[in-house]
Structures
1.
Amino acid sequence: MPGKRSLELFEEARRVFPGGVNSPVRAAVKPYPFYVERGEGPYIYTVDGEKLIDYVLAYGPLILGHRHPRVKAAVEEQLEKGWLYGAPYEPEVELAKKILSYYMPGGMIRFVNSGTEATMLAVRLARGFTRRKYIVKFEGCYHGAHDYVLVGAGSAAAEYSVPASEGVPEEVARLTLVARYNDVDSVERIMRRHGDQVAAIIVEPVVGNAGVIPPKDGFLKELRRLADEHGALLILDEVITGFRLGLRGAQEYFGVKADIVTLGKVIGGGFPVGAVAARREIMEMLTPLGKVFNAGTFNAHPVTMVAGLETIRVLEETNPYPAMREAAERIARTLEDAASRNGFEVTVNQVESMLQVFFKPGGVWSYDDAKKSDRRLYDKLHEITLKKGVFIPPSQMESWFLSAVHTREVVEETLRVIEEAFRELRGATR
Ligand SMILES: Cc1ncc(COP(=O)(O)O)c(C=O)c1O
């Protein structure tokens, strides 16, 4: 439970920030968020003197944990040379070459400042390249906080999709058609009707924003086929999965090739970042070469570039992926076992170092399934684990993440807390 100092700070924060925070999920920690004093390895230390094992990891970027010494050294070295130039700088070329070698050999990349900017630019590029207006997205997939993608499915009777936020004009929302994740038929229906006007299908290869939902066998390949059949582009939004499922991300993991890949999170080593990588003829549409506009004062920020570069070097040199997967598997099995021993029916979805538990039996393959989870129980689980020193996502709709520094001992401690937490959950709810 967050303590007195956090409460004082949150009271002040509520006067200056809507809801007290600068990104909504941060307010999901109830009854109020803890304030961080510092992060170190797998731990967050709060201003209330608590030490928490962190499975949120800033919602994905911190694959090497907090304050990794090599990333810290790279950033410090950069600070000695200044931190923003508004002119080209060598590390951006190095990072670009590295990312392209894994995600788009022979292609090109543009660095921006967030995943939101990356998907916004990817959609604009797809529209510019194909000279078409519509995009297709999936319910429960999140691609950032801009108008093109803040769109949901209308009711079954409604023909059009609807804004998922006030302030998004209906006219804009109508250009985004919404299909069901893992439901090829729903995409086929849309493509049959609008295929010749669809610029791109955009998808999270593993949904990380409706809990964790893996793609069914062949689902992504079917999207590839449908995009090809209708002359649309396939945008894989790898903002979460990039360098998380492995160095080559979801394309290699699921054997599917994208026309455009959006990246973010890990590639900035914990600093603000986004990137769009695509085939050369698509990227050549971009200003200053072509006529699809993008610009940014902070694009390819030097500190971000060196932090991202060093993070990827560490990933290459140490290959933490098998160990992270094994740790995530142990946590997933323990969640299942502890739940079942205490009479809870759950589904645990885990892909590499991403996982989430749903209080719903029988599998979670879509946003509709995820919504059927008993959120009350999830929130209670979050509250109990937090009290016991383990910070899991405060929302059912987010993913747990592991890092390369979640050691065996850290994971053992987590498993113990999970066991205790489910016993307590049974006591609290039965
Ligand atoms: C798949 C995906 N795309 C895009 C975004 C937006 O990224 P950012 O928060 O950096 O704008 C997110 C953020 O969580 C994401 O998970």
Note: The radius of gyration is 21 Å.
2.
Amino acid sequence: MRLALSLENLIDNLQKLPTIGPKTAQRLALYILKMPEAEARNLAAAILEARDRIKPCIECGMLCDTERCNICEDDQRDSSTICVVGETSDVMAIERTGYRGRYFVLNKDFHVMDDNALDGLNLKLFSDRLAGGAVREVVLALNPDIDGEIMSRYLAGVTNKFGVRVTRPAHGLPVGGNIEYADEITLRRALEGRREF
Ligand SMILES: [Zn+2]
């Protein structure tokens, strides 16, 4: 049996979203079709409006609807520390810890196996901020996977050239976890971040 073309099209498009497999896409498509018309139109309009209005902050790269984001605009922030993260959602997570420094958001999925891994990363913007002289510490808070590790090493190299200190969060072992089952990167970094007992 073939699905109606427009339904198939909706499912195909939903399936392009991360973590959405064919079954979930089908379920979401059918759910959307059962929504009241006004709600479905609001959803479509919200996607288009966000797509049009949201852009990377010209200073830190965080997604926002103004030229500079509210963190870059906030002069109470500590400009001597920059925390480098992969995505705007990571900024939100770090904000919840009470961090009061500034950010640099890469905004790009990078894969080390990809020859063009560095293309599209605004590294000139990053170097310019270090060249400004106010930055004393760069905290590399990229995801602790292979891609994040290699990118961190690269950014540490760039940062070192400016004589700026490079740190990263001491990724600990998960509470309730088992050392035997911790992956190598987590365990190595937990050991690196060890403190006085
Ligand atoms: Zn900003």
Note: The chain has a mean pLDDT of 88.
